[in-house]
Specification:
Blueprint: E1 4-10, E2 15-22, E3 28-35, H1 42-49, E4 68-72, H2 74-77, E5 78-79, H3 81-90, H4 92-101, E6 108-109, H5 113-129, E7 137-143, H6 150-159, E8 166-169, H7 176-179, E9 184-189, H8 192-200, E10 205-208, E11 222-226, H9 236-244, H10 246-255, H11 267-281, E12 291-297, H12 301-314, E13 321-324, H13 331-337, E14 341-344, H14 347-355, E15 360-362, H15 367-373
Parallel strand pairs: 4-7, 4-9, 7-8, 9-10, 11-12, 11-14, 12-13, 14-15
Antiparallel strand pairs: 1-2, 2-3, 5-6, 10-15
Length: about 375
């Protein structure tokens, strides 16, 4: 079902136009116009067109307990490098002053922007199939910005036609404490410290990086790629490999191939995606599902892939595509997949993906982080 918002506007020449926006896909069109310098009243045109200047029916966000909640920081949803530099070099007061002076200037899209638009595309399909269901994605803008910056963020969201209604602006304090209250399924931030705090609280989280030149991604199908060990799975097998080498790792995986791995920090997010995928499968739309998931792992298929796939099966989870690379670089494969997000626990895989234009997210979890610190 298509929802529409209608409103009047004035251009710089004094011409009044009547606009229409489809709330499902954000498309806007100009319906008609007139010169407001004359004697005609816009009220007459409004009556003729039969619609007020407010949305005919505003789409309400789902209740947090029913939704799949994605919390994104303002610095990954939008490009705020200039503002961040001012904050770091000149302090909070100059930062707030700059934000107020540029309040009417919208931020440009950041690395999470295409991901959020893809979530909205999935929601649009779900609303068509299940008009009364609240099992939808709900995006929450979570930022430690001062509330003074809120108007610029709201202006930017309206400028880009994003359907984001929930904000959390903490005025310099950490927002992590609010994530559980929002029933957060995934938290994306540019701040690795906050991401670690979230993971320690049991919340799926990752540090997002911006490629120099982002590859174009699908605007109709959400694509998410996951590493296996220390992302979907625990770091149990990774510990064996780091401590004893590849041969012992293969022996361990063969001996334990029928024992499921413990869960990793992103397992719950894959579960949430699978839950929505099944709603499309139930309607006979498996091959036309707007969500697609990928396992992109350095594991070898024959030597250690069995345990990974059996673990997913034991959890009742499906993965659409599994790529066992046997230690080969992940970047070229991800360049072909073009996911909206790729999650990995090792920075050299994140950096390799970002170099080829993939929006990559670092999951600071497991043995690899402790070895990196050393």
């Amino acid at each position: 079902m298509s929802e529409t918002a209608l409103w009047w506007g004035d251009d710089t020449g004094g011409n009044r136009f009547f606009s229409k926006m489809n709330l499902n896909n954000g498309e806007t069109s100009k319906v008609s116009g007139q010169n407001t310098n004359g004697a005609n009243s816009s009220w007459e045109d409004t009556k003729r067109l039969g619609k007020p200047s407010t949305p005919t029916r505003k789409l309400q966000p789902p209740k947090p307990e029913n939704a799949i909640t994605i919390a994104v920081s303002s610095r990954v949803l939008f490009s705020m490098e200039r503002e961040q530099q001012i904050y770091e070099r000149q302090g909070m007061e100059e930062y707030l002053k700059y934000q107020l002076e540029h309040e009417s200037e919208p931020f440009s899209p950041g690395p999470a922007f295409s991901f959020v638009k893809a979530l909205e595309a999935v929601n649009s399909r779900l609303r068509e199939l299940y008009p009364q269901s609240e099992e939808l994605f709900d995006v929450v803008l979570v930022t430690n910005n001062h509330a003074y910056v809120g108007l610029r963020l709201i202006n930017t969201i309206n400028h880009h036609h994003l359907l984001i209604e929930r904000f959390c602006m903490t005025g310099g304090n950490s927002p992590i404490g609010y994530l559980k209250a929002y029933h957060t399924n995934l938290y994306l931030s540019a701040d690795s410290t906050k991401v670690r705090e979230a993971l320690e609280e049991g919340i799926a989280a990752a540090t997002m990086f911006t490629p120099e030149k982002m590859k174009e991604v699908s605007d109709t199908q959400l694509r998410v790629a996951f590493d296996g060990d220390a992302v979907l799975f625990s770091d149990e097998s990774e510990r064996i490999f780091k401590a004893h080498g590849l041969d012992k790792f293969f022996e361990h995986e063969k001996a334990h191939e029928n024992k499921p791995l413990d869960h990793g920090p992103l397992k719950g997010f894959l579960e949430a995606l699978g839950k929505l995928q099944r709603k499309f499968f139930d309607k006979g739309l498996r091959m036309d599902c707007p969500i697609r998931t990928y396992l992109v792992t350095a594991r070898s298929a024959a030597s250690s892939g069995t345990r990974a796939l059996k673990t997913l099966r034991s959890w009742g989870l499906e993965i659409d595509e599994a790529l066992f690379l046997a230690g080969a670089p992940k970047g070229p494969m991800l360049e072909k997949i073009r996911p909206h997000l790729f999650f990995d626990d090792q920075m050299f895989h994140v950096e390799g993906a970002a170099e080829l234009g993939t929006v990559a997210c670092h999951v600071p979890y497991g043995i690899a982080q402790r070895l990196a610190k050393k």
